[in-house]
Amino acid sequence: MPVAPLPEQVARFYTTQSVFSDPGEFASLYRDLPADPAALARIVRGLFVHRLEGPRFGVELAPERVREDAETRYVDEILRLVAERDDAALTEPRPVRDRFVGICRDFALLHCSLLRHAGVPARIRSGFADYFDDGRSHGDHVVTEYWDAERGWLLADPQVSEHYDLPFDPIDVPRDRFLVAGKAWQRIRAGLADPKEFGLLFFQPPLVGSWFVAGNVRLDLAALNRVETLLWDVWGLGAESDEEMTEEMFELYDLAAVVSADEVPFDRARELFAENDGLRTPAVVGCLALEKGFSEVTLRPWA
């Protein structure tokens, strides 16, 4: 069945850079890059390494980069670090030890930035992937979602590459292998999934549960509104354990999950984010950086 064209308003919104994805003074680095989502994902993969991937590549990553790089919120700041370390064209893969040491959000955000620059509608999606644990659990993860004129919105994971043995094309991730946050929330609320299987299971103790999924719904709704914060930025109505979840919270995230599932009603997603203080990202957020502890951060104006 043919896919209906993306409404002009939606296409324009998701091809416009956000304050987070804008390359700013480094836009010249994007000159002459391809528009193909797979080719752009390979470029990202050649510039970045996940901070947990050192052993996969047999490389000891510099501790200061593991600690600091993933705290970089904005693409222009990421590109500054990339260019300072190696001023070659972005199409030239860096040696692993010289790459930007980020997390899944950083891969997806740069991929999204490159796609938007190429005129491809794109956004990042927070949710849970089961392909890092052979389907046994759903780990906290972020991917890109981009518009394909023939197939509609597709999920792409620019972090995975030939170094991951996966039974699918990472530029077309099956939606039963990556559950966007709203879909995960809905499955849990319907009794179809165990909330203890969603989150950061490798932490000790694991960070899992409905409270964690709710936080991802909040992050995903923000990203659908082109507010692509760090994953450990916190704000609004939330909890730090399932025991702290209230009926008000469950009701709020039931509403938010409807607009942050596989099908995104654009106008409603914009309206809910704009009008609800429990969901809307404020000018100042809390930041729970892994090694630095809690701090308050003033974001660049995004609206």
UniProtKB/TrEMBL annotation:
Gene3D superfamilies in UniProt: 3.10.620.30
Residues annotated as domain Transglutaminase-like: 96-160
Name of the protein in question: Transglutaminase domain-containing protein
